[in-house]
Automatic annotation (TrEMBL):
The lineage of its organism: Bacteria, Pseudomonadati, Bacteroidota, Cytophagia, Cytophagales. Keywords: Activator, DNA-binding, Transcription, Transcription regulation. It comes from Hymenobacter aerilatus. GO terms for molecular function: DNA binding; DNA-binding transcription factor activity. The keyword NADP does not apply. Belongs to the LysR transcriptional regulatory family. This is LysR substrate-binding domain-containing protein.
């Protein structure tokens, strides 16, 4: 049994195709197939069911793969402990970030992070919160940037920002003349929402609660983009809620409405698996991000945290 064989079965579980798994492991498909078969022969069990539709772990295979992930994580940590002791920030940084945060935060820090640590290979991927959490546990991501708290004992949260929710209101809407808004105002008709699955959507609905969300529009449109919602408001009618980072350049726009104190905020954290050992890298990333956003958005302010779970 070798670490390489364990990497192969983990990749095969993730991609459920021999060709794709081999490609991700930078080996030929026959090589990967042969090594998986050798491991099965050594263990005396079938790890995968091979079907025309794909490759699926057997019941015992799923248990072996889970242990393989733990072994590979520990092996990776051994190398990283040595790197930390040497003061090196090298290797891969696989970062997952939620779509309602990525367009506004990633451009602020990504280039400088790479320039500051030239031996670091940074991979950034947008995905929803549940996927980030799962991939952190499966050692497919190193760091997540997402909304917390998560209430998951396997994951460690490092609070970073407390970002206020703001109203974005069209000129023709009844809320437009107001200097500020409050949660009870969100029962007014014309509220645009993100699609199902976005934590931001759940938080908006939690702000509205217990007021019902009025639905008097003759059509429905749910977007996966904050920018699309803003454009709908600008060009049509209605209103939506947006995170403050998305309107930093237009805070003097009369369409932007703050909530009455205490403002509802979303807590944004760096999230890692509890086994994560490259703490200097985590601290460097945290300091870099905090230096790029207004101090009023730093964690520890007096906002009302809105949960998404």
């Amino acid at each position: 049994m070798t670490l390489q064989q364990l990497e192969y079965i983990v990749a095969l579980d993730a991609h459920q195709q021999f060709v794709l798994a081999a490609d991700k492991c930078f080996v030929t498909q026959p090589t990967l197939s042969m090594q998986v078969q050798k491991l099965e022969e050594e263990l005396g069990v079938l790890l995968f069911d091979r079907t025309r539709k794909g490759v699926v772990p057997t019941a015992v295979g799923a248990k072996v793969i889970e242990k393989a992930r733990e072994i590979l994580r520990t092996s990776q940590q051994l190398r990283e402990v040595v790197q930390v002791e040497k003061g090196e920030l090298v290797g891969d940084l696989r970062l997952g970030i939620i779509p309602t945060l990525a367009p506004y935060l990633v451009p602020l820090f990504l280039v400088e992070l790479v320039e500051r640590h030239p031996q670091l290979r940074v991979q950034v991927e947008e995905m929803q919160s549940a996927d980030i959490m799962q991939r952190l546990k499966e050692n497919q991501l190193d760091v997540g940037l997402l909304v917390t708290p998560l209430d998951d004992r396997q994951l460690r949260e490092i609070p970073l920002l407390e970002e206020p929710f703001l109203g974005y209101v069209s000129e023709g809407h009844s809320l437009y003349p107001q200097a500020t808004i409050c949660p009870t105002d969100l029962g007014a008709p014309g509220l645009w929402l993100l699609q199902q699955g976005h934590c931001f959507r759940h938080q908006v609905l939690n702000i509205c609660s217990p007021s019902p969300v009025a639905d008097s529009q003759p059509f429905a449109y749910e977007s996966g983009s904050i920018e699309t919602l803003k454009e709908l408001v600008r060009r049509n009618h209605g209103y939506t809620l947006v995170p403050e980072l998305s309107v930093l350049s237009e805070l003097d726009n009369p369409m932007v409405k703050r909530f009455e104190a205490p403002e509802p905020v979303r807590e944004i954290s760096l999230v890692v698996h509890h086994g994560f050992v490259r703490l200097p890298l985590l601290h460097s990333l945290r300091e870099l991000i905090l230096a790029k956003v207004p101090a009023r958005l730093h964690a520890g302010q007096a906002g009302r945290k809105i949960r998404w779970r």
